[in-house]
Amino acid sequence: xxxxxxxxxxxxxxxxxxxxxxxxxxxxxxxxxxxxxxxxxxxxxxxxxxxxxxxxxxxxxxxxxxxxxxxxxxxxxxxxxxxxxxxxxxxxxxxxxxxxxxxxxxxxxxxxxxxxxxxxxxxxxxxxxxxxxxxxxxxxxxxxxxxxxxxxxxxxxxxxxxxxxxxxxxxxxxxxxxxxxxxxxxxxxxxxxxxxxxxxxxxxxxxxxxxxxxxxxxxxxxxxxxxxxxxxxxxxxxxxxxxxxxxxxxxxxxxxxxxxxxxxxxxxxxxxxxxxxxxxxxxxxxxxxxxxxxxxxxxxxxxxxxxxxxxxxxxxxxxxxxxxxxxxxxxxxxxxxxxxxxxxxxxxxxxxxxx
Length: 355
What we know:
Layout: E1 4-11, H1 17-30, E2 36-43, E3 49-51, H2 78-81, E4 84-87, H3 98-105, H4 115-122, H5 124-134, E5 141-145, H6 146-151, H7 153-163, E6 168-172, E7 182-184, H8 187-198, E8 203-208, E9 213-221, E10 226-234, H9 242-247, E11 252-254, H10 261-278, E12 282-291, E13 296-303, H11 313-320, H12 325-354
Parallel strand pairs: 1-2, 1-4
Antiparallel strand pairs: 2-3, 5-8, 6-7, 6-8, 9-10, 9-12, 10-11, 12-13
């Protein structure tokens, strides 16, 4: 049987550029060399694309994956070179539907959610609108355009104080890796937080504070998804910001989380419901708050392209559930091809209509 040609698109114009590079290296090291040929495709932080040589040997260091932009790929011809793509670019221009749309246009199967689910998963406001429409339990929130914050900051602050109160969380609506997030405890810190979040996106979301433990669960599959065990994040910092995610050695991941079994089952059910509501496919990590005193669960957000090094939460959740990293990659590629075949059925129906 001939090897499948696997493209890995990584890097990108994102705050998580370095994480993406490490993820690409991790996947290259883990894939079955007898089954796959691997072509790394690197996107520089300035947006330039560079196609690397086919990987014949396992690279020892991430620097071996980076290429000068003297081998820019013919995007439209990637269909002739590859059988399936694993995009591992986090944040804007990677998991927000833009890259997925490009891959759809050139008719290439790819791992992960499609255009709409990726876009909804990136935009925290639209995500929460879908959650609300689906009846998923979540905290109160409001959103503001950057122009309104600049023109009427005091009125915006008055409204937030009245409707959500302190403390509250302020976030860019479209940004990954906890960039631009602040916890506002008073009027002064609220004004600073709004200004900070507005630097990263034209839309800002403000969320009420929920006094709960941060728990997460992995979802895997397409039309019939399954869930991993539930894990808990215990950050060293006051909340799980970028520093806690990637820089701090004090953040702890408890897998499985020490929570009641009925709460864990509720989290899994809600995660599958959220996955289906957004129309996700392949993989997602769904984040919740468990308010222990209330014995209540609130959904926080869904991540359609979670961190994917062997030491990231998503693969670690599945390892605890009995699926090792290499097998997880294998399953995701299988789900990508399954979704592609299912999508092609739609095109065949359209063709038959005109014949």
